[in-house]
Design brief:
Helices cover about 35% and strands about 20% of the residues. By secondary structure, the chain is of the alpha/beta class. The longest helix has 28 residues.
């Protein structure tokens, strides 16, 4: 049996899907959250299909999961109006509430979120083809991120609870919200990366309009009730539909104060240009990446191959932090490729719920064809596929392709493939790698594999001025969430980590007065009388 037929045989009949992993989305169809109410959309809808194909009488076909609203500009503007009402020029109940009040609301949300864990995990598997292990990890990591965000805000608020006295001026400096936020997350981490901007925005006092990604729509529906029960009306609003239809009018209104977007730099540029006063809009952007790995001649090849396969092919390589191209010294290219081939052949391929599965269906309908064109272009320019069956596709399953000898003229040398294709180049001088990084439009991360401290140091110093994370003898990655996550050039704007995100969605604001007896008495009365949510000395435990 050829590999294409083997891949086809991995797709199940509906009755072969384990009962505990099946989904019924009828209770969540057509729902959206507007101004504190979960509403049912009566207008046009969009069908949500799964990358998981099912065997049937007519052959293989993508499973249909349900339908979501296909909203129009009027509905989108109603959501924006609700958020603006909650903001109310900074006078709304949410932005003027105490830090303790906002923390309590987020704590209530996360408690409700946990109750629908299994539903959300199953929808992650069905909507984006993420393995059961990785789907559970995404959910649990998101919960942990929210809890650590709460603790980070408590710590920050404690540090800001004191007054300063300098030059005859008494002052208290705190962080205040920025205004209405538009949050748009990516399909590859539709829960985690959406909520790592949404939750910091909310907990700092900003009302939010959320547009989920085009893949990963239904998984937010079970959480709408938690949002509605946890936050005041207008503070959280979910909209669905075509971006050009519902996002363009929101941006053109000029009423968005914060844009939190994770996606392509091309789309980010379009969004920013639509705002009539972009200088007034804070942008938190996670964008493209072409993270390279460098394998030095003295590298531990077993370690390097293991990390590179994981780094390039975890969740099918559909991560901005994935290793997208490898540079291997010509003296070790042969043995390194041998190890890579063996490691790729050992990766289990199958459905998301299969035990230990690593390669799963791709959510984008045309992704296999796009990857095939990349491989064909590279081969036409001198590359070769070195792993048996590499690049074989069947419907949404694509068997990883390891390409050796990828030339600088190949598309894969420059473009982010965002899929299970691993381009490998050989080099003689490390300067070739440094020139690649310097010329690249992207500047997120690199991975260096080697053992010579002096040689590594000579690479670290210039690379620190081109990328924002240098990984030594390990794959590129985002975590842990306490570390800054950002990029240079076309890869990012602003920095995310648990503490950085709180700063991104707020601004330092202060109350100051001359240190006269009258001012001291006034401030004392405000504080001791607990008249202000901003000016206080409360210590949150």
């Amino acid at each position: 049996m050829n590999l294409t037929a083997q891949l086809a045989g991995l797709f199940p009949r509906l009755d072969q899907v384990p009962a505990e992993y099946r989904v019924d989305t009828r209770a969540y169809e057509r729902l959206y959250l507007l101004n504190g109410e979960i509403r049912t959309w009566e207008g046009p809808t969009t069908e949500v299909s799964s990358p998981i194909c099912l065997q049937g009488g007519g052959g293989l076909g993508r499973a249909v999961l349900g339908r979501v609203p296909s909203m129009d500009a009027g509905a989108a503007m109603a959501a924006l109006e609700a958020a603006c009402g909650a903001w109310d020029g900074g006078r709304g109940g949410w932005p003027t509430s105490s830090v303790a009040t906002r923390i309590a609301a987020v704590e209530g949300f996360v408690a409700r979120m946990i109750r629908v864990r299994e539903t959300v995990v199953n929808l992650l598997m069905w909507e984006i083809g993420k393995s059961l292990e990785e789907s559970r990890k995404e959910f649990d990591r998101t919960v942990e991120y929210i809890r650590r965000t709460i603790e980070a805000l408590k710590e920050s608020d404690r540090a800001n609870s004191r007054f300063s006295l300098d030059g005859g001026v008494i002052a208290q400096v705190r962080r205040a919200p920025l205004g209405v936020c538009l949050s748009m997350g990516p399909f590859n981490y539709p829960l985690n990366e959406t909520y790592t901007t949404l939750i910091p925005a909310l907990i700092m006092g900003n009302p939010v309009v959320v547009k989920p990604p085009r893949f990963g729509l239904l998984l937010h529906q079970p959480l709408l009730e938690a949002f509605a029960a946890s936050f005041p009306p207008g503070v959280v609003n979910f909209i669905y539909g075509d971006g050009a239809t519902i996002i363009s009018p929101i941006m053109k209104s000029g009423r968005v104060d914060v844009l939190a977007f994770i996606g392509s730099s091309r789309v980010a540029d379009v969004l920013k240009l639509q705002h009539p006063r972009p200088h007034r809009m804070r942008c938190i952007l996670g964008l493209d990446a072409k993270n390279p790995g460098l394998i030095l001649p003295d590298a531990d090849l077993d370690l390097a191959a293991r990390e590179c396969v994981t780094g390039a092919l975890s969740y099918n390589g559909q991560r901005c932090t994935a290793l997208k191209i490898l540079f291997v010294h010509e003296t070790v290219a042969g043995p390194f490729l041998d190890r890579m081939v063996a490691a790729i052949q050992a990766l289990p391929v199958g459905m998301p719920w299969d035990a230990a599965v690593k390669i799963t269906p791709l959510p984008e309908p045309d992704k296999a064809a796009v990857l095939t064109r990349y491989v064909e272009d590279a081969v036409a320019r001198g590359a070769r596929v070195v792993n048996p069956g590499g690049g074989t596709a069947c419907e949404t399953l694509y068997y990883p392709a390891l390409l050796a000898g990828v030339a600088p003229t190949a598309q894969l040398y420059h473009r982010e493939q965002f899929g299970p294709v691993v381009p490998v180049c050989t080099y003689r001088r490390e300067e070739e790698f440094l020139e690649f990084v310097a010329a690249s439009n992207y500047g997120q991360q690199v991975s260096l594999f080697g053992r010579d401290p002096a040689r590594m140091a000579l690479l670290i110093d210039p690379l620190a001025n081109q990328v924002c994370r240098i990984n030594l003898n390990c794959q590129c990655q985002r975590g842990p969430d306490t570390l800054p996550f950002t990029g240079r050039k076309d890869s990012a704007e602003a920095t995310l980590s648990i503490s950085d995100a709180l700063r991104c969605f707020s601004i330092r604001s202060l109350v100051a007065a001359q240190a006269s007896a009258e001012s001291r008495a006034l401030i004392q009365e405000i504080v001791t009388g607990r008249h202000s949510s901003f000016l206080h000395t409360d210590f949150i435990l």
